[in-house]
Structures are given as structure tokens and as C-alpha cells.
Design goal:
Layout (H helix, E strand, L loop, with lengths): L2 H9 L18 H6 L3 H13 L9 E6 L4 E6 L4 E9 L15 E11 L15 E9 L18 E5 L5 H8 L14 E2 L4 H11 L11 H8 L3 E4 L7 E4 L4
Parallel strand pairs: 1-9
Antiparallel strand pairs: 1-2, 2-3, 3-7, 4-5, 4-8, 4-9, 5-6
């Protein structure tokens, strides 16, 4: 055998693989370490959206909610870097009726409403008293097995902030710095008031279509017309939202 060929054959096992590896899928990336074995569920769910009729679906941001740690992580899917981590109350601990807790699994971002400067005193969510500042829908994805639920908000669960003056209970929670740790009674992921404005650019970039039943009430329509609340909606599938199966 030619000596050059023999030398090349001996060196082949030492050469790095040329197969492409996404940073986000590497077990060494911060995001993969944070999410653990559920990372494959996220990528499988994204692939399922492509098969369900959105072949170009390639979300930049992942909104990962950890009910056990009471945190929300904003992850750059391409690099696998965790861009932001916020304290975030969820449906952990049995608040509300059983089927209204923040459900685990994959969702897509729906439409987004943002109060001017993220002002937590300005209502942003339909007739839901206290929902203010930021409002972002979590929608069942196009690949959901029940076609009647696709594009709909699960159990009224949205990402939102509170108006701390909406009730005495919220005023007390605000004074004790419990908002952001104690969630709303229907299980919505709720970031702390101070963190809500930091979420705004990610929510705007990740906005998808509104749930078709999410019609603003008269008061909210007035706020939108007056420029106090802005609605963001895109005709493409929104960012990926994943609620870890941890309690």
C-alpha cells in the first residue's frame, strides 16, 4: 500500500468530524445544561411545526419556564446561550383549579400587548382585572393533536405582569415582594414587576398571531386607540415557549 494512503488512513480517526452540530444542541451549551433531557422535546416540537405546515419555522428565541425554580429563561436557540433569567411565578403549589395550572410542554407565542413603557398600572389583557404592563399569549401549536385547540390559549394561561394597585391582595403581595414568586390564581407565568420591562424586546420580537377569541374589551380598545397600549401581531408562527415538566 502507498505510504501516503496508509498515513492518511491512520490519521482519519484523529480528525474532527465535519458533520454540522448546532451549538444549541450541544450537551455543553448553557441552554442544554439548563433544560437537560427535555431539550430534545423542544427540537422535536419545532420539527413538528414544520411538518404541520410551517416549513420555515426556525425561532430565534426560546422562552423556557421552570415551575420548580420559579424562573423564566430567554434562550438564544442558535448559540445555546441564556440571554436573560427572570424570577417568574407560575402555577406551582396548587393555586387555582387543577386544570388551570401552567401546563408543561411546548407552545408558540401568540399576539403581544405592551403598555407604554411597560407601565404596570395600564391594563393590557381583555377583561382580566390586574393583568397589565405586558401580556403575551401562549398558544397551543399547529401540531397539537386536537385541531379545535390549535392557536388557542390553554386554560387562559398567558405571560403577564400585575397592576399592584388592582386589589388589596396585590398591594400586600407587592409590599412583601411576593409578585414574581406567587403566581396568579389561574397559573399564568408572572415575572416580577421590575423585570417586566426587560422582557419587552423579546416579547415583541417573538410575537405571533393572536388567539382569534382574544378581542379587546371597550376599555382596552380605548387604551390602544390612545397609544397607551400597543398590540404586536405577525402573520408567522411566534417564538417557542416551553414549560419544563418540573414541579
Amino acid at each position: 500500500m502507498n505510504l501516503r494512503v496508509l498515513a492518511l488512513l491512520l490519521l482519519l480517526p484523529l480528525l474532527p468530524s465535519c458533520s454540522p452540530t448546532s451549538p444549541s444542541s450541544s450537551s455543553s451549551s448553557p441552554a442544554a445544561r439548563l433544560v437537560g433531557v427535555e431539550w430534545s422535546n423542544i427540537e422535536s416540537a419545532i420539527a413538528a411545526q414544520r411538518q404541520a405546515g410551517y416549513p420555515d419555522y426556525d425561532p430565534t428565541w426560546l422562552f423556557v419556564v421552570d415551575p420548580a425554580a420559579q424562573r423564566m429563561h430567554i434562550i438564544d436557540r442558535k448559540s445555546g446561550q441564556v440571554k436573560e433569567t427572570f424570577r417568574c411565578g407560575t402555577g406551582k403549589g396548587g393555586l387555582g383549579i387543577e386544570d388551570s395550572q401552567t401546563p408543561p410542554g411546548f407552545f408558540t407565542m401568540g399576539g403581544v400587548r405592551i403598555a407604554k413603557n411597560g407601565n404596570t398600572a395600564i391594563q393590557t389583557g381583555d377583561s382580566k382585572k390586574g393583568v397589565s404592563g405586558i401580556y403575551a399569549e401562549m398558544l397551543y401549536p399547529p401540531s397539537h393533536p386536537d385541531p379545535t385547540l390549535r392557536g388557542m390559549v390553554p386554560n387562559g394561561v398567558v405571560i403577564h405582569s400585575y397592576n399592584p394597585e388592582a386589589s388589596e391582595m396585590l398591594r400586600q403581595r407587592r409590599a412583601q415582594r411576593l409578585i414574581g414568586r406567587v403566581p396568579c390564581t389561574t397559573g399564568c407565568p408572572v415575572p416580577d414587576i421590575e423585570d417586566a420591562p426587560k422582557l419587552i424586546p423579546y416579547l415583541i420580537q417573538g410575537a405571533g398571531k393572536f388567539d382569534p377569541t382574544a378581542n379587546p374589551n371597550a376599555n382596552l380598545q380605548s387604551l390602544i386607540r390612545g397609544g397607551q397600549v400597543t398590540e404586536y401581531q405577525r402573520n408567522r408562527l411566534g417564538a417557542a415557549v416551553y414549560v419544563l415538566n418540573r414541579q
